[in-house]
Amino acid sequence: MFQSLTHLFSTILTTMKPDVSIIIVNYNSSQLLAEAIESILEHVSGIDYEVIVVDNASTDHSKQMLSERFADKCRLIVLSENKGFAYANNRGIEVAEGRNILFLNPDTKQIGNAIKQLSDYLDKHPEVGACGGNLITETGGEQFSYWPILPGLRFEIHALFSNILLKQHHRGSLQYNHTGKEKEVGYIIGADLMVRRKIIEQTGVFSEDFFLFYEETELCWRIRKRGYKIVSVPAAQMIHLESRTIGSQFDRLPYLQQSRRIYLSKCVSRAEHRAADCILYVNSWLRWVYFSMRSDKDKIRFWRYINRNI
């Protein structure tokens, strides 16, 4: 009798848990965060969800805004120190109760029921460990949503030749899914990455070696190693106001290069890491020369930085 009641109580608690836990890491982005939450409340329907905001030691009025406008709509975790995007997401995972977990940027807006579409897709496809949608600009332009292969030697060889062969193989759909159909990819960017909770329990959470960038790539690498697929679901669309929370392309470069080194040290052999660096060095040098001939100051600056910080 006692065991039956315990089982019944456990079943009730399980059914009360949300379908999706939406984790948003915020750092000094109060206005964007407010718009992101409002769009979730307006557009997401047909599923039970929870919103978890992890504040990465913001110095703006983000915490006050959340307590005044969304106190009963989201759960707030306040960190005393900014230890990076991966660290903050992991604190959200610790309290998340959803069957599926969505890692969502604060500079995103819902324009439809994309979160339900992604959750339904994971529920219907047990062979898929993670998925994400197509990201667009406010005016409907294409945004970087995924990449078809993971970083490494193959990645750098394709980049050396401007991804010509990769574009032919994927019919031009290298970072935005034009096919209208779901497709397997190398990794989904962290702006709208949804992962099955059971997969995270198998692979582990984000690696906190990364401060910013590549943490989602490395997690996707671990998910693929477990034999699960990473899939782009083009029907699930969201607006992504890219770089509003991070800054310019040049602001991102130090983080990108540092995280690239960490990723390669974790995920490929030492020989492949060295070979990939050699190819990138050649590529950056050639492009530096090319854009110098064209007097393109921004590109010169970009490739000079890459060349000197591999």
Structural features, described:
- With 310 residues, the chain is an alpha/beta fold.
- It has two domains: 11-240, Spore Coat Polysaccharide Biosynthesis Protein SpsA, Chain A (Alpha-Beta Complex); 249-308, no CATH class.
- Helices cover 47% and strands 19% of the residues.
- It contains twelve helices and eleven strands.
- Strands 1, 2, 3, 4, 5, 6, 8, 10 and 11 form a nine-stranded mixed β-sheet that branches. A two-stranded antiparallel sheet has the order 7-9.
- α6 runs parallel beside α11.
- The longest helix is centred in the C-terminal third of the chain and has 24 residues, at 270-293.
- It starts with a helix and ends with a helix.
- The model is unreliable at 5-14 (pLDDT under 50).
Keywords:
single chain; Spore Coat Polysaccharide Biosynthesis Protein SpsA, Chain A; 310 residues; two-stranded antiparallel ribbon; 19% strand; 12 helices
Instruction: Return the structural class.
Output: alpha/beta
Radius of gyration: 20 Å
**Percent helix:** 40-55%
Query: What fold name goes in the CATH topology slot of the largest domain?
Result: Spore Coat Polysaccharide Biosynthesis Protein SpsA, Chain A
Topology pattern, helix = H, strand = E: HEHEHEHEEHEEHHEEEHHEHHH
> Major sheet, described briefly?
9 strands, mixed
Low-confidence stretches: 5-14
Strand content: 15-25%
The rough form would be described as globular
Instruction: Give the number of helices.
Output: 12
Look at the structure and give the mean pLDDT.
94
Q: What is the CATH architecture assignment of the largest domain?
A: Alpha-Beta Complex
